[in-house]
Amino acid sequence: MDAKVHELLNQQINKEFYSAYLYLDFSNYFEQASLDGFANWYKVQAQEERDHAMLFYQYLQNENQIVTLEAIAKPDKVFTSHMDVLKAGLEHEQYVTSLINDIYGAAYDVRDFRTMQFLDWFVKEQGEEETNATDMISKMELFGSDPKSLYMLNQELAARVYTAPSLVL
Ligand code: FEO
Predict the structure, then answer these.
(1) Domain architecture of the chain: domains with CATH
(2) Contact, 125 vs 66, CB < 8 A?
(3) Is there an atom of ligand 1 within 6 Å of 53 CB?
(4) Distance of CA 42 to the CA centre of its chain
(5) Residue 96, ligand 1, Cβ within 6 A
(6) Ligand 1 contact, 52 CB (< 6 A)
(7) DSSP secondary-structure letter at 146?
(8) Which atom of ligand 1 is least distant from the CA of 96?
(9) Under DSSP, is residue 138 helix (H, G, I), strand (E, B) or coil?
């Protein structure tokens, strides 16, 4: 495997675990705000991010590449409103999309078609992640200021359950 592609794929393991950590922090924020549905939603999101990390880990191992695990950064944002959290979520997903695109670009440059095919799932997934994050912001804009509507939105988000990723390596 090309050294740059390898390095970026290895870094992505860390970035995805950081995403899991970040969303656990979001979940913790909402738990403390007594919005258990929002807390549940982000806890499930954290599980998905852990799965993403494991897919990169497994892909490198399947390709007989060395995996190097680095320290996971501390989520250190201080939130002053529910909307702050949701906006940080969208911003983070846009950043992750840019990382996936960078890896794709590096793989494309060296005609690493296998890595490009592996990344195709993530390209689609990032589209969904950004849509979900945008939807959360729209719903909060619409319903966040009315306690009864916020209660119902919280109930809706409480129903989210974890499902394993559709990509299996
Ligand atoms: Fe692993 Fe939220 O992208």
Answers:
(1) 3-158 (1.20.1260.10)
(2) no
(3) no
(4) 10
(5) yes
(6) yes
(7) S
(8) 3
(9) helix
CA distance 159 to 76: 28
Q: Which residue has the tokens 């306690």?
A: 147
Q: How far apart are CA 56 and CA 99, in angstroms?
A: 13
Note the pTM of the prediction, 2 decimals: 0.97
What number does the ligand 1 atom closest to the CA of 53 have?
Answer: 1
**Residues 26/89, Cβ–Cβ less than 8 Å:** yes
At 94, list the tokens: 């846009």
Residue closest to 143 by CA, chosen among 135, 133, 153: 153
Contact predicate 63/30, CB 8 Å:
no
Please give the pLDDT value at position 67. Answer: 98
pLDDT < 70: residue spans in the chain: none
- Per-residue b or e along 121-132, where b marks 16 or more CB atoms closer than 10 Å to that residue's CB: bbeebbeebbee
